[in-house]
Amino acid sequence: MNATLRNGNCIPFVGFGTFKIRSKEDVQKTIKAALDVGYRLIDTASVYRNEAEIGQCLKEYVPSNNLERSDIFITSKLGPKDQGEGTCFAAFHRSLSNLDCQYLDLYLIHWPGTQGRKPDDPDQGELRVGSWRDLIKLQKEGKVKNIGVSNFLQHHIQELIDKTGVCPDVIQTEHHPHCVQSELIEFCRRTGIFYQAYSSLGTTTSNNPILTDPVVTEVSQKLGKSVPQVLLKWAVQQGIGVLPKSCNPQHIQENIDIFSFQIPEEEMLKLNSLNREKHYCWNPKDIV
């Protein structure tokens, strides 16, 4: 199932995340398993250090399975060390080369700050606006179909719009029942920015507060669905995209099998009540 972006392009509601999937063997195994069960969005980033492996896998797998490049939605992201006009442009082309593509479907500024600079450095805004100007240029050149940001807050996004007149197509940010950025979501809905969640299943630690939350597990038992399926469906049912990742073939299948059921309103309200504005990943609140 796809969502329609503000520019008229489509994006799958469920994509496959590849953070921490790095070796050639693991990349090939997981990407093939994901495509076999219907994933068509592959999400990576320069900091994941797996772009070349993903590019090679897609190059081999796509044509041999009666798929075309246009059937696959490929996302990558600008590393924080490459922030700034010109530097961003060069980093994008490195990612394009690593992924062995003629174009990307989505390219995001991964972080509102620049690596090596203090969060309150007055140049932070100028650098990310410079990166945004590069993305606008790349989109006009047809090198990337959609452009956006990741881990940005409302004031970071508004700055881009004010300085360039161009609104992001997508924002990717941490989102789960313990971290619901309601004001940011409302801002994105008003401006037509597609809201895409990462870390929908919480942390990667063994003591995962989301997967063990008693309310979440209760809803899971009532619906006869796994906890990850409930968490992913909770987001998608609200029009939010998700990017589950796994190396387990059974989980890869389960995580995309969320369109055959609905969470009743009563259970949605229970899940919505769990918000504590708790970030388990990156928190951009200190970046000016």
Automatic annotation (TrEMBL):
Recorded superkingdom: Eukaryota
Record site feature (Lowers pKa of active site Tyr), residues: 77
Matches recorded under InterPro entries: AKR (IPR020471), Aldo/ket_reductase_CS (IPR018170), NAD(P)_OxRdtase_dom_sf (IPR036812), NADP_OxRdtase_dom (IPR023210)
GO molecular function terms listed in the Swiss-Prot or TrEMBL record: oxidoreductase activity, acting on the CH-OH group of donors, NAD or NADP as acceptor
Domain NADP-dependent oxidoreductase, first and last residues per copy: 15-275
Annotated catalytic residues: 48
Keyword Lipid metabolism: no
Binding of substrate, residues: 110
Pfam families per record: Aldo_ket_red
CDD domains: AKR_DrGR-like (cd19136)
Keywords associated with the record: NADP, Oxidoreductase
UniProt family annotation: Belongs to the aldo/keto reductase family.
PANTHER family registered for this protein in UniProt: 2,5-DIKETO-D-GLUCONIC ACID REDUCTASE, NADP-DEPENDENT OXIDOREDUCTASE DOMAIN-CONTAINING PROTEIN
Protein name as annotated: NADP-dependent oxidoreductase domain-containing protein
